[in-house]
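User: Please fill in residues for this 352-position structure.
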């Protein structure tokens, strides 16, 4: 149908009434805009024709930068800001990512077990990280959001059995905790690639403590302050801090990675800096118990000796990290742990 310019004119009129004169208009549209439409919008909205930019609907948001480059939005913005136009941005890696994203060679199904799944944007960084890692593996990742409160022992096979991999997501508080622990157990016992992030890593430690070490009441003192086996606990220096914000470990921290570990092969290096947002830690009192039964601490903070990464070397791919790798994954630099996890899920290969 014919494009209507009146809504745009009314919007700009409202801006002008608020004292704002736009320099550039980006018009969302289902179809290409004709030159006549651009000229009409420019005339009635008091902007240059070159500053009327179309944003045609695309199949993925990752195409938008390419479309804006084609529309010369960058040139217009630089000119408006009186900045020099230098070389055109090199988007070869971005185009390569798009090509892989739109032409996958295989599919993989991964379950994200969390308790905020009613609000999928709560896990936006994780879902985007899977898009980045999927493209790196030439693989389309179907991410199935699974509510941890709905997992009980009687339905684990029905809920989790079809998955190529399981990720237990971050979170706070006791709600849905037992479902997460059951998901960890299912992944560990059935040799399904497993990735635990922050609370997900702590769930892996608790599950291993209960079902392998025989500490039947193993828990985090966040959930059960009276547990006889606090395998996850506050550091001693945190315990007298009453302001909760003061007990959080936030921002980037160094992590020294054990050579020849699964994560060292993923990172291709033995020292990284990763971002944190958490309060409770692996309780180092129990570290020898875990190592003796096959769960190894392969990432350690060199300043505090805190455990940052655990893995089970005998498992197909079982990694828990106390930090948040999803915070630093990008199109051009997908996070190596997500990339390697997706690779392992592809090799696990139940999906078609």
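Assistant: Residues filled in for all 352 positions:
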């Amino acid at each position: 149908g014919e494009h209507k310019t009146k809504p745009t004119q009314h919007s700009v009129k409202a801006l002008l009434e608020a004292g704002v004169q736009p320099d550039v208009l980006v018009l969302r549209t289902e179809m290409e805009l004709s030159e006549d439409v651009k000229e009409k919008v420019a005339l009635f909205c008091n902007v240059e024709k070159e500053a009327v930019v179309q944003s045609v609907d695309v199949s993925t948001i990752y195409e938008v930068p390419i479309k804006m480059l084609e529309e010369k939005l960058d040139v217009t913005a630089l000119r408006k800001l009186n900045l020099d136009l230098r070389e055109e941005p090199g988007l070869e890696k971005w185009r390569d990512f798009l090509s892989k994203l739109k032409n996958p060679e295989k599919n993989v199904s991964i379950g994200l077990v969390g308790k905020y799944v009613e609000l999928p944007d709560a896990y936006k960084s994780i879902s985007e990280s899977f898009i980045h890692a999927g493209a790196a593996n030439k693989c389309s990742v179907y991410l199935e959001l699974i509510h941890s409160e709905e997992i009980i022992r009687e339905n684990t096979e029905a809920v989790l059995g079809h998955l190529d991999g399981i990720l237990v997501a971050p979170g706070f508080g006791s709600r849905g905790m037992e479902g997460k622990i059951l998901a960890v157990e299912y992944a560990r016992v059935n040799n399904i690639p497993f990735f635990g992030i922050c609370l997900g890593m702590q769930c892996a430690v608790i599950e291993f403590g209960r079902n392998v070490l025989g500490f039947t009441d193993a828990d985090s003192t966040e959930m059960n302050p009276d547990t006889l086996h606090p395998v996850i606990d506050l550091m001693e220096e945190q315990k007298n801090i009453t302001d909760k914000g003061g007990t959080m470990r936030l921002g980037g921290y160094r992590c020294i990675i054990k050579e020849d570990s699964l994560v060292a092969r993923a990172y291709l290096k033995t020292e990284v800096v990763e971002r944190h947002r958490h309060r409770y830690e692996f309780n180092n009192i129990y570290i020898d118990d875990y190592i003796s039964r096959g769960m190894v601490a392969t990432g350690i903070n060199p300043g505090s000796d805190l455990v940052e990464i655990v893995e089970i070397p005998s498992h197909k791919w079982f990694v828990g990290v106390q930090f948040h790798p999803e915070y630093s994954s990008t199109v051009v630099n997908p996070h190596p742990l997500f990339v390697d996890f997706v690779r392992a899920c592809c090799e696990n290969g139940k999906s078609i």
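For context: The chain has two domains: 6-89, 106-348.
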